[in-house]
Amino acid sequence: MSNIKIDETISWRDITPGGDIVAKGNSVEFKTGDWRTMRPVFKEDKCKQCMLCCPTCPDMSIPVKDGKRLDFNFDHCKGCGICAAVCPFDAIEMVKEEK
Ligand code: SF4
Ligand code: SF4
After folding, report:
1. Which pLDDT band, with edges at 50, 70 and 90, does 89 fall under?
2. pTM
3. Distance from C-alpha of 5 to C-alpha of 62, rounded to nearest angstrom
4. What SS3 class is residue 18?
5. 3-state class (DSSP) for residue 56
6. What kind and span of H or E run contains 41?
7. What is the whole-number distance in angstroms between the Cα of residue 89 and the centre of ligand 2?
8. Is the CB of 57 under 6 A from ligand 2?
9. Distance from residue 22's CA to the centre of ligand 1 (Å)
10. Is the beta carbon of 59 within 6 A of some atom in ligand 1?
11. Atom 2 (ligand 1): residue with closest C-alpha?
12. What is the CATH number of domain 12-96?
């Protein structure tokens, strides 16, 4: 089940042709992770903080703070599994998304 709330006061006349997003720098405002069908699970005990996964994520959904990777940002993770494929230490497991 999606948690998206639809604002029924907005008509098609209020949106851009094709629903294009034309403002710049606003992708962070659009939570695009809600159509994910698979979910990465971070196995922190196996992680060696090698940082191979972070730059491979196409959605920048692996936050890094003070030189350490943190748990996933599920607002934007699409569940593509690239991070799990590159991790050499089996510290990321892909599971079916349950919503
Ligand atoms: S599953 Fe894909 S989108 Fe999600 S964190 Fe891993 S690489 Fe990024
Ligand atoms: S690739 Fe694996 S071991 Fe390396 S930082 Fe990512 S989760 Fe941790």
Report:
1. very high
2. 0.79
3. 26
4. helix
5. helix
6. strand 38-42
7. 7
8. no
9. 25
10. yes
11. 80
12. 3.30.70.20
DSSP assignment of 64-82: EETTEE-S--TTT-----H
Please work out whether the CB of residue 48 comes within 6 Å of at least one atom of ligand 2: yes
CA distance 47 to 61: 16
Tell me, in angstroms, the distance from the centre of ligand 1 to residue 20's CA: 24
Q: Which amino acid is at 34?
A: D
Query: Which ligand ends up closest to the CA of 54?
Result: 2
DSSP state of 74: T
Q: 9-68, pLDDT tens digit by residue?
A: 988 888 888 878 788 877 777 888 888 999 999 999 999 999 999 999 999 999 999 999
Q: Match 């695009």 to its residue by tokens.
A: 32
- Give the Cα-Cα-Cα angle 44, 65, 23 (nearest 5 degrees): 115
For residue 57, give the ligand nearest its CA. Answer: 1
CA–centroid distance, residue 7 to ligand 2 (Å):
40
